[in-house]
């Protein structure tokens, strides 16, 4: 799959003569999003205040092939509520990969439970199922599979562990819209899944998230928690049966989300086109590894990433300096969560600790031109030649 070659390949420059800035990401907003948002702002009040919210949830559930969806203010909020609905609390342990963003671990801490960080696989940079099994204790209450940068966790192995030890597998698919594991969409496989619609994501609402599940009782419990603890159908007005959360998405945000999910095929395909050009242009560099796509899977390639071989001598500081010199944004690879001040170090997670100093995320956005991709490629090549 190739990026259309008809795009103008002229290098744009600023007034000072330097190459124009290449951002690492930005959303694709069309007249459809603008029209829906305008309608929501104009008419989405009173009895119409949930119209776009309901339509977005239904469209997203249909796209994913799940029964239930709850739009939220963030993926973090969706994960927080879902874990709470599973009954996770003080004294419990939740296993997740050490290579992750803090948003995957924070809800565990907020619930009074302990995140248990295990190492990742060297090819997918996602959680290592063998390390998961070794970390299971009587206090383990869930396993979180975070599909990093669009890469997929080994859901077959994790689901088998979940069945063996009677543990729910939770999918943090914040970065994996468009990814599929053997015919099933990421986020639709585990006990529940969560998604992010941050402005950097393939589908965006500016800020926002989604909780999805096929488990009706888990859905009802999470729905109650999402509405300040008010049970659906409660006849008493302003009567919460429990202490819940306030993680709702607004109708205006949902209007943008609806327009985006109606374009999801286009948006994901474009991500894949951009990645394929990167991959083709970087082919032949034995010192570079990129996002994998194992047989039977589809990678949504949210964030094209290059990992340099340790013996290449390429380091993060070199990459950042090289990209900055060419006026290109590039994002550093996630630090191990256990290396952060809030947690105890798990230096034995050698893969997770070895990745960040020799990896970087490459720019990827819908209207990125062939020339812009090639400028990025030139920088990658320059650090190893």
UniProtKB/TrEMBL annotation:
Report the protein name in the record: Glutamine--scyllo-inositol aminotransferase
Pfam family name, one: DegT_DnrJ_EryC1
Query: What processes does the entry annotate via GO biological process terms?
Result: polysaccharide biosynthetic process
Alphabetized UniProt keyword annotations:
Aminotransferase, Pyridoxal phosphate, Transferase
The cross-references to CDD domains, in alphabetical order and at most eight, read: AHBA_syn (cd00616)
Q: Which domain of life is it from?
A: Bacteria
Question: Which residue ranges does UniProt annotate as crossing the membrane?
Answer: none
According to its UniProt record, which residues of this chain constitute the active site?
Answer: 201
Q: Which organism is it from?
A: Rhizobium tubonense
Q: Which GO terms describe its molecular function?
A: pyridoxal phosphate binding; transaminase activity
The UniProt entry, under Gene3D superfamilies, shows: Aspartate Aminotransferase, domain 1, Type I PLP-dependent aspartate aminotransferase-like (Major domain)
- Xref: InterPro entries: DegT/StrS_aminotransferase (IPR000653), PyrdxlP-dep_Trfase (IPR015424), PyrdxlP-dep_Trfase_major (IPR015421), PyrdxlP-dep_Trfase_small (IPR015422)
Family the UniProt entry places it in: Belongs to the DegT/DnrJ/EryC1 family.
Q: Which residues carry this modification: N6-(pyridoxal phosphate)lysine?
A: 201
